[in-house]
Specification:
Helix content: 25-40%
CATH class of the largest domain: Alpha Beta
Shape: globular
Strand content: 15-25%
Largest sheet: 12 strands, mixed
CATH topology of the largest domain: Rossmann fold
Number of strands: 25
Structural class: alpha/beta
Distance between the termini: 18 Å
CATH architecture of the largest domain: 3-Layer(aba) Sandwich
């Protein structure tokens, strides 16, 4: 089957007015703020009314195997499954997803609105400017940085050390040249000269804060608790010490309201927030998921990258901020990606290779067993590609079921919601099963214990090696009395180890902790392992070379 391009499919679909989508989940006309005909923000009036309701839908978390160049299609499955539950099983359903970052859209990864006949629309808007949330975040990040630098230049009564500022500037662009810069050069009227750096907007702490805040007061409090840096006397300095939290919260007050859109099949979708899962916690906003839970009977959300990153963080951290924990977990896999785990090349993925599939299955096995350890029902959905043979699909189902898990093959990309009705039925059945949620670590565990439990139980590492820098940072965090916070592991998404080239399901390796960063406003400690970049670069052939717009404003080449 030769499908039209994703963008062509999306542009050929007639959208329903967003007011009609709002009616599907009982949102009143004065509870949404329109951004044209096809998107809206849910107002504080609506959010506050919804919070009073006792209704809580079932929560379905979609995660996946380790990502590969062969593709997995996690967002496509989330959207297709949501459409199937909504339109084939006729159940009140909402999908909650992250907003795409424009950096990857113009870089290597491309957009993040699903694919084929399982997409959210308007896909061009969502992948580009949308409702302006990313721009508001970027402005807030850089305004805060400018205010801090101005404070040092004008006053600095707290003796904030310019060389120990931890805040980074932000831009929603992949730009490797901004990873390390020097500012304030030249005349003394240009400010105090010191080194600085940029992180992509979605990797900034303010993004994490936006996605965790429950209202504007909470947003303001979290911003105030952000650690700016240290004084020359080695004292921590927070944003609230400088008095900037109100201004930054004002810049983000509209961005905090979740965005309502729809799928190609007109299932309501809330798209809001987008922290990276290989650096931050990798889930859409808490306010979006909680709102969805009070508006519908079934909520589908996804966690970024593989189950060892977004999945683990969702279960151990994000779910603690939600009105309920997941009722079921979907692990997405593809035959192609599992063969890649064994062959480490994309050259022969179109050829049937049962031995490679069996070897690569170890990656899926690790992920689904990890998710099952949380005590929540788990099902595997195999995202079918045209090159998959019946023998390969049958073998993969056999391997999954032999390990005691439910498994279904779906083709939402090619067929929309009709491409996985049985899978939707099984997922709904799983949400009614009893669960006994158990976290990997206890809140009272030390930082080292939390890292150890994740490394051993999720990654299957044997040893953990701390750099001297990490040891010093850990001592500093303990001195500040912040060592009781949850940990967010920053790690390559391609491997269970901290080396992206080691595929499959390795065991008994050493995990290298390079540094620790206190994100006091977000309420977690980032533990960086291996080499992690919070500012991506562009590839030799960036996706931007294929993107264009005609004189009528019609965009092409996003996919």
């Amino acid at each position: 089957m030769n499908l039209k391009s994703d963008i062509k499919i999306a542009q050929d679909t007639k959208e329903l007015p967003i007011t009609e989508i709002a009616k599907k989940v009982d949102l009143q006309p004065d509870e949404i703020e329109l951004y044209g005909n096809d998107k809206a923000k849910i107002s504080w009036k609506g959010i506050n009314r919804i919070k009073q309701g006792k209704k809580l839908g079932k929560l379905i978390l979609v995660t996946s195997i380790s990502p590969t160049p062969a593709g997995e299609g996690k967002s496509t499955i989330t959207i297709g499954l949501g459409d199937a539950i909504s339109n084939q099983l006729h159940k009140n359903t909402l999908i909650a997803l992250r907003e795409p970052s424009m950096g990857p859209v113009f870089g290597l990864k491309g957009g993040a609105t699903g694919g084929g006949y399982a997409q959210i629309i308007p896909m061009e808007d969502i992948n580009l400017h949308f409702t302006g949330d990313m721009h508001a975040l970027t402005s807030a990040i850089d305004t805060l940085a400018a205010l801090v630098d101005n404070y040092i230049y004008q006053d600095n009564s707290l003796e904030l050390d310019p060389n120990r500022i931890l805040l980074k500037r932000g831009i929603d662009v992949n730009d490797r040249t901004l990873r390390k810069i020097t500012i304030g050069q030249g005349s003394r009227f240009n400010g105090i000269e010191h080194e600085a750096s940029f992180a992509i907007t979605v990797a900034n702490e303010l993004m994490a804060i936006l996605c965790l805040a429950t209202d504007i007061d909470d947003l303001k409090k979290r911003i105030g608790n952000m650690l700016v840096g240290f004084s020359v006397k080695d004292e921590p300095v927070y944003v609230k010490d400088l008095g900037f939290e109100g201004a930054i919260a004002a810049l983000l007050s509209t961005a905090l309201k979740p965005n309502l859109v729809q799928t190609l099949e007109h299932t309501p979708a809330i798209v809001h927030g987008g922290p990276f899962a290989n650096i931050a916690h990798g889930a859409n906003s808490v306010i979006a998921t909680n709102t969805a839970l009070h508006l519908s009977d079934y909520v589908l959300t996804e966690a970024g990258f593989g189950a060892d990153l977004g999945g683990q963080k969702f279960m151990d951290f994000v779910s603690n901020h939600l009105d309920k924990r997941p009722d079921a977990v979907v692990v997405v896999a593809t035959v192609r990606a599992l063969k890649y785990q064994a062959e480490e090349t994309t050259d022969h993925l179109d050829e049937e290779n049962i031995p490679a599939l069996e070897k690569g299955f170890e990656n899926l096995k690790r992920h689904m067993e990890n998710m099952a350890h949380y005590g929540v029902p788990v099902i595997v959905l195999i995202n079918k590609f045209a090159s998959d043979t019946e023998q390969e699909l049958s073998k993969l189902k056999e391997l999954v079921k032999a390990d005691g898990f439910e498994c279904e093959v779906v083709s939402y990309h090619d067929e929309g919601s009709k491409g996985g009705i049985k899978a939707a039925e099984k997922v709904v059945e799983l949400t009614n099963k009893a669960s006994d949620f158990t976290s990997v670590y206890e809140p009272t565990d030390s930082v080292e214990e939390k890292i150890s439990k994740i490394a051993h139980n999720i990654y299957h590492a044997k040893d953990i090696e701390y750099s001297d820098k990490a040891k010093d940072q850990l001592a500093e965090i303990k001195k500040m009395g912040k060592d009781n916070l949850p940990v967010i592991m920053a790690k390559t998404q391609y491997s269970f180890t901290d080396k992206k080239s080691i595929l499959g399901a390795p065991e008994d390796f050493t995990l290298h902790v390079k540094n620790l960063a206190l994100k006091n406003g977000a309420g977690f400690i980032v533990v960086a392992t291996g080499s992690i970049l919070d500012m991506p670069g562009l590839p030799k052939h960036p996706a931007a070379l294929d993107i264009d717009v005609d004189n009528n404003g019609k965009i092409s080449g996003l996919f």
